Amino acid sequence: MSRFRLHAHQYAIILVMLAAFGLVTFLYYKSETVDYRDHERFVTELGLIQAADARLNEYVLRLRSGTLANVDPLNRDLESLRLSLDALADSPTFLRQAGLAAVGKQLRALRELLKRKEALVERFKAENANLQTSLSYFPVLVRQIIERAEPKAGASDLVQSLYGLLRDVLLFNLNNEQTMEAELYARVLSLESHQADYEGLVSPRTLENALVQARTILKIKPAVDGLVEELIGLPAPEYAERLAQAYNRYYEYALRTTNFYRLWLYIACVVLLLYVAWLIIRHLERRVAMATAQVEGYNERLKRQLRDLQAMGAVSLTVSSVMDVEKVLDTIMDLSKEVMGAEAGSLLLLDDTGDKLRFHVAKGSAADTLKNVTVEMGQGMVGHVAATGRPLLVKDAYQDNRFDPSYDRLSGFQTRSMMTVPLRAKEQERVIGVLQVINKRHLPYFDEYDLHLFESFAAQASVALENARLYARTKAIAEDLRATLERERNLTIEKEKMGKFIPKDVVDEISRNREKQLALGGRTICASVLFSDIKGFTRLSETLDPHEVVRFLNVYMTAMTEIIEEEGGIVDKFIGDGIMAVFTDRRDRDHALRAARAGVCMQRKLGELRDQWQASQPEVCGLQMRVGINTGMVVAGNIGSQTRMDYTVVGDNVNVASRIEGACQPGMVYVSAATQEDIGDRLEAIRMDPIQVKNRVQPVHIYAISAEEGRARR
Amino acid sequence: MAKQTSTRSSWAWLLLFAVVFALLGLSVLLFPEPPTLSVEEGVEQQDVGEFGRDRPIQPIPPPAGLDTEKVALGRRLFHETRFSADGAVACATCHDLARGGVDGLPRSRGIGGAEGEVNAPTVFNAVFNFKQFWDGRADNLTDQMEGPIHNPKELGSNWPDILKRLEPDYAAVFQRLYPQGLSVDNVKDAIVAFQQSLVTPDSSFDRYLRGDLDALTEKQRLGYSRFLTLGCIKCHQGVGVGGNMFQRMGAKNDYFRDRGSETQADLGRFNVTGEEFDRYRFKVPSLRNVALTAPYFHDGSAKTLEQAVSVMARYQLARELSDLEREQLVAFLGSLTGTYQGKPL
After folding, report:
1. Of B274, B278, B272, which is closest to residue B147 (Cα–Cα)?
2. Same domain, B115 and B226
3. Same domain (yes/no): B193, B217
4. B225 touching A (Cβ < 8 Å)
């Protein structure tokens, strides 16, 4: 609805428009009053009257001279005159009252005149006809009378008189001698009175007829002449001219009036058009101006936003990349000062006690003096903001009673406008410090927009402080976590090893105790320990490419480990190219047999491997392995330092196994007497020379188990 | 928002242009029409041949440009007795088309057998008369009608009564032919239309005038010659062979003195103008079909053509006619009898 509500000036425009249209309409109506068709008609009819009148005169003259055969043309012209006069009586209305009166007066005069003319024409037609008949018959008749009378006696008198009369009457007809008329009448009368005398010469009737013709001529000829003269003399053209003049006067007046109105109509139209054009142009100009202002506003905002964005970006970058909180806060302060266009800026943090604010960062000319200065909570502008937790925008510091000018005195700085915002810890609304910029450069004070941006900076600073705090905490936690994880990893390995040669309940116990960091005291168990070693491998590895060495070892170790595990042994550890494996009891006491069988299989496997390497790696095809096995009581337990623990077996029997292996012939499997005893006759064994072992007084009896034979015996 | 507005305004402009062009298209309806063939153009101009306009007598042009329905209506009205006060007399009572447009009486009888003042002139070719009535008191046929209607000795009626009497039978046909329906002007118009059709072209003499020299007998030709030389032509001339001027009855000899018992009607045009000059002056009657319209003169005093010719010669020309001359003249006058609707009268 409010869109359609008009302002006062719009009402005024509408009113002016309506008035202008009204005026234009009025002027148009007034300028169209002259009906040109009516004018044409009037002028044409007037012309017709003039033409018909002129023609009428011509016809009258021709009729008089006898060159017009009939009077129909005259009647037609008279009819035409009547019709034209009727048409003129219906005069154009644009002459208006005065004009109609003037024209009507002239028209009436013309009508009267023409009426008179018509009456005269009628008379003329009749009299002229009468005259013409007499004029044509009188000579004929006179001639007849004379022709008949002449032969008779005493006719000369009559003949003389008639001749004379005829001649003089015809002369009279030709001339305009008025004087002859009376004399001629007298002669007609004289002839009439002598009618009886001439009875023998001419019949009285015939003579009388002749005299009637003469009298007719004498009487009517002057009348006809008079009629012609009057007819021709009638001032019809003048009257028509006067009518035309009267008409033209008022017609021109009407035209002038019309032109007057038309001129003003044109002027009014032009003014109206100009006004409308002006309205349109003004409207467009306003819109353009509005659009321009809008665009400029957008531009300004975009510029500012870009600047702020860049500043924010820089702050964010700093916050995220530099973990040194001091450096971050310093950068934020620098950027704040630059972006806000401030002369000075400072960051104050709340003490641990929570009642004092300390200048943490200060920028500007007075920065050095303010370093580490403390401010009481609630004191001055910063104290106030810290206490209330609300940002403050102060246009003139000295007009604000919250402002404490003592710091100006201290620093020699002249504070004008200032902007102060609180720093808050992220999760709780607790105020942890205050951020402040002072004196807007080139401008009297900071605005709301600056405040908004400044709060964003404050938020970033808070985040930086928060991040620093969190980082410190996270670092400590991570250290703890690392140690824990390490312990966990070792425990898993031990648990797996223990599971192999310690009953499950023991392992579980260890696992439980492990949580309590209980060191295993170890247990004594019966087990067979297998040692293997490749002869001359150390020498070979010096000549071989290290990669080749590693590849060979991997293949070799994998194959051996597979065999050991197949026989239910546990690879306790790899010692260089050597392997230490432990076989413990399962359901029956056959670990010695399984160990011996594993040794035999290992030898056989190495033989197969040698065959495979024959083509690809001739360097290693000459390799041979030694295997020694001993069976006896050993101590099993977690052995090692606090951080590097290993679940393994130790004891004299383990050493003996290693010695047996050292004494073993390459490609053979040597076992101790204890082992041989356990194996019994399940494998064929050959007794070998006993060997001396460290820490043992008695030599150790050893047996060799042939791989082939062992296999054959199975 | 701005885009939407501009789209809407562009639609408005499109609509405006569409409307303007539609109006321009409609303006074709105002295209000027070609001129229609006027009645005048439709009628073939009268061909007077080598006997141009200088001939004293012009042949009658055939009637043209008349509305046949109005003519038919006029004919019905012409024979309508409801025009008279007593419902017994119609126009045709005294102007019997079968008898040359006259009743053959010296003076006609109107309502109640009342005898009129003058001899009834024929209605044939009345349209060519420059004025109507013997004394020329009406300028045209429309005005002429008022005379017999109001004359107590003729129809003795008035328009309101006539319209009332005509209403039942004529309202419909008038409504059809005239926008204003039955009215005085329209009744007159219909009758005038009919009278305009009452022309008698193609008489022997007209054919002669058009170049058919054999259309007249020897006697008639001689009669025409006499007509010219005796001076009859000076008054009886034009298309109507008369009917285009006034002339004094007794131009050269006093007719009324010889006839005696002068009446008011004998004063002629004097009764109209009051001018002494107009005493005894009458409209020269048309001689078309004159052989059929006996008796003659305003007083109906001449019973035969011979008689009338003799009277004319004596009083208008002061001449004595031989019997031969008279015979020839009468023979010539007989050649002026024309045709009506293609049939000889």
Report:
1. B272
2. no
3. no
4. no
Name the catalytic one among B154, B262, B276, B325.
B154
Q: What is the pLDDT of residues A595-643, one digit of tens each?
A: 888 888 888 888 888 888 777 777 777 788 899 999 888 887 777 665 5
- Decide if A122 and B246 are in contact by the 8 Å CB cutoff: yes
Q: Under an 8 A CB cutoff, do A70 and B244 touch?
A: yes
Residues A546 and A656 in one domain: yes
B150 and B171 part of one domain: yes
- Check whether residue B328 and residue B209 sit in a common domain: yes
Tell which of B162, B197, B232 closes a domain: B197
* Chain A interface includes B212 (CB < 8 A): no
Given B159, B180, B197, the domain boundary residue is B197
Domain interval for residue B106: 68-197
Helix-, strand-, coil-residue percentages of chain A, each rounded to 5: 65, 15, 20
Instruction: Confirm or reject contact between B55 and chain A (CB < 8 A).
Output: yes
Long-range CB contacts (within 8 A, 24+) of A692-698: A693/A655, A693/A656, A693/A659, A694/A655, A694/A659, A695/A652, A695/A655, A696/A652, A696/A656
Cβ contacts (< 8 Å) between B53 and chain A: which residues? Answer: 69
Q: What are phi and psi of B119, to 5 degrees?
A: -70, 135
pLDDT band at A506 (very low <50, low <70, confident <90, very high): low
User: Do both A634 and A703 map to the same domain?
Assistant: yes
Question: What are the pLDDT digits (tens) for B195-229?
Answer: 999 999 999 999 998 888 899 999 999 999 999 99
Question: Is residue A98 located within the same domain as residue A246?
Answer: yes
Contact status of B235 with chain A (Cβ, < 8 Å): yes
Please tell me which of the candidates B56, B281, B318 has its beta carbon nearest to residue A69. B56
Mean of pLDDT values over B232-244: 93
Within this chain, do residues B162 and B220 fall inside the same structural domain, yes or no?
Answer: no
End-to-end CA distance of chain A: 111
Judged by CB atoms closer than 8 Å, whether chains meet at A122 and B245 is answered as yes
B220 and B312 housed in the same domain: yes
Cβ-based contacts of B280 with chain A (< 8 Å): none
* B314 belongs to a structural domain: yes
In this prediction the ipTM stands at: 0.85
Residue A496 lies in a domain: no
Q: Does A132 touch chain B (CB under 8 A)?
A: yes
Residue among B234, B279, B284, B314 with most chain A CBs within 10 A, to mutate: B234
A6 touches chain B (CB under 8 A): no
What is the C-alpha to C-alpha distance for residues A70 and B241, in angstroms, rounded to an integer?
A: 9
User: How many domains does the structure of chain B reveal?
Assistant: 2
Chain A nearest-CA distance from B54, in A, is 5
Task: Verify that B187 and B274 share a domain, yes or no.
Answer: no
How many domains does chain A divide into?
4
CB A572 within 8 A of CB A496: no
Q: Has residue A603 been placed in a domain?
A: yes
Judge if A460 and A337 occupy the same domain.
yes
Residues of chain B with Cβ-Cβ distance to A129 below 8 Å are 234-235, 245, 247
Tell me how far apart the alpha carbons of residues A271 and A100 are, in angstroms, rounded to a whole number.
36
Query: Chain B residue with minimal CA distance to A137?
Result: B230
The pLDDT tens digits of the residues spanning A284-305 come to 999 999 999 999 999 988 988 8
B154 part of the active site: yes
Higher pLDDT, A240 or A467: A240
Partner residue opposite A209 with nearest CB, options B235, B273, B320: B320
Contact residues on chain B for A143, CB-CB shorter than 8 A: none
Q: Does residue B23 fall inside a structural domain? A: no
What are φ and ψ of residue A531, in 5° steps?
A: -120, 140
Pair B86, B185 in one domain = yes
Which of B334, B98, B36 lies closest to B205 in space, CA to CA?
B334
Tens digit of each residue's pLDDT (9 = 90 or more) over A435-491: 888 888 887 888 888 888 888 888 878 877 777 777 778 888 888 888 888 877 777
For residue A130, give how far its alpha carbon lies from the nearest alpha carbon of chain B (Å).
7
Q: Please give the residue range of the domain that contains residue A396.
A: 329-475
User: Does the beta carbon of B319 lie under 8 angstroms from any beta carbon of chain A?
Assistant: yes
Q: What b/e sequence results for A586-613 when a residue is b if at least 16 CB atoms lie within 10 Å of its CB, and e otherwise?
A: eeeebbbbbbbbbbbbbbebbeebeeeb
Backbone φ and ψ for A490, nearest 5 degrees, come out as -60, -40
